[in-house]
Amino acid sequence: MQEIRRLNDLLRKTHSDGKVLLSAGITDLGQREAAQVLAAVANFDDFTEDNDPHGEHDCALFDWQEHRIMFKIDYYDPSLQYHSGDPADPTITTRVMTVMFASEY
Prior knowledge:
By secondary structure, the chain is α+β, with helices and mostly antiparallel strands. It contains 3 helices and 4 strands; from the N terminus they run αβααβββ. It has a 4-stranded mixed beta sheet with strand order 1-4-3-2.
């Protein structure tokens, strides 16, 4: 769990070692506002038992301006066709973080 959390935080904060996808709604905000949303995701640190029951920092909801934002990290094999067999192993896992309005989920 600690390695999964470390890898998830790395993707969330630096956008490295994985892929970051923005929903149509976030993209429609424009480049400047989308960058602000990504910065808010990177700075998010209000993980609790309620929003992070497994301690993996893989999903959360928060308010940004007048919007409810959600990010979710999923774990795929390197081909992005199947789920990863071991999300703690970066050699067989590609992380994909999707950032969206909660209403788009």
